[in-house]
Design goal:
Rossmann fold, five-stranded parallel β-sheet, alpha/beta, 312 residues, six-stranded mixed β-sheet, 22% strand
């Protein structure tokens, strides 16, 4: 159970106020955003619910079983199942002293969770419907007694953005207009909406094109036939394949099989990039995810800096 030697503190969260005392030791993370946040704060989970149903009881090899975040896990969390319907029985099994989750996923079960252990539900949606981990990291940190770590994350992240922005300045100047789209190769449609990656690309200095939605969660689906009409210097294509979390090869092959897509100026110039939708589309979200996306953006666009230097 939680270490009660520390002071008790009242935590503000989406469902009201909850008192948490001392240092929680057995923390349940009900979804990827919470897992990302607590790992970034230096806290380990006792149990976890992934974004898809996995057929094993425990994350014995988290680095292999949990994409992007698993290599930071030093425990062997119990698998609670899918984030939309975590197993109550398994939550009871681990005897948690703190349960953390997102309101939009778990509000309907809040009363039930609260009878098991202090339960806090958060939202990273801030003003102007902006989705960003900075909107809930302080309260999450307060719950797990890691407030100084949260402050460090908030102070250091703008510096990381500035570093990438400076290194890619020539690319931003040469190719300012960027399209980030989810592609369904079966229906020949693309979907455009708010993503973590889009937010980061804008922070670097790029301008997102055809962002016809402004409210959180709103997406628009378009036929691929409209792509030639979209003024995009760079296109990031998000997708999934049966081989989870590594869709690039299949996406690239299917893209080349579509004459319309292969003939786009961006395609011809090698400025199409295929990325994992699970990471880029905001399914995980958090300080670690943002760092991973930033690093991918930098690595994908770094060769374009050489092209600009060769023109000088």
């Amino acid at each position: 159970m939680a270490d009660r030697s520390g002071d008790c503190r009242v935590i503000q969260h989406e469902m009201g106020e909850t008192t948490v005392c001392g240092q929680p030791q057995r923390i349940v993370a009900l979804d990827p955003h919470i897992l990302d946040s607590i790992l970034a704060l230096g806290v380990q989970p006792i149990a976890y619910a992934e974004s898809r149903l996995l057929d094993f009881e425990q994350f014995n090899l988290p680095a292999e079983q949990i994409p992007y975040l698993g290599d930071r896990i030093t425990t062997k969390p119990l698998n609670l199942g899918d984030r939309r319907n975590p197993s109550i029985e398994r939550i009871l099994q681990v005897k948690p002293d703190l349960i953390l989750g997102e309101r939009w996923l778990h509000e309907g079960h809040y009363d039930r969770y609260s009878k098991i252990a202090p339960t806090l539900l958060f939202s990273d949606i801030g003003e102007n419907s902006e989705q960003h981990w900075k909107n809930d990291i302080k309260e999450i940190a307060k719950a797990v007694n890691r407030e100084s770590e949260a402050q460090q994350l908030l102070e250091k992240f703008p510096q990381k953005i500035a570093t990438v922005r400076n290194k890619l300045a020539s690319v931003v100047a040469a190719y300012p207009h960027v399209l980030v789209a989810s592609w369904d190769s079966l229906t020949s449609t693309i979907s455009i909406g708010p993503t973590s990656a889009g937010r980061l690309l804008e922070a670097i200095g790029f301008e997102l094109v055809n962002t016809s939605t402004t409210n959180f969660g709103e997406w628009v689906s378009l036929s691929i036939e409209v792509l030639p009409e979209i003024n995009a210097d760079l296109i990031f294509v998000m997708g999934t394949t049966p081989e989870f979390y590594n869709p690039e090869a299949q996406l690239r092959s299917k893209w080349k099989d579509q004459p319309l897509l292969a003939s786009l100026p961006s395609s011809q110039a090698g400025r199409i990039f295929f990325v994992d939708q699970h990471l880029w589309i905001s399914q995980i979200r958090g300080p670690i995810t943002d760092e991973l996306i930033l690093e991918q953006i930098f690595q994908l666009l770094l060769p374009l800096t050489d092209r600009q230097e060769s023109k000088v």
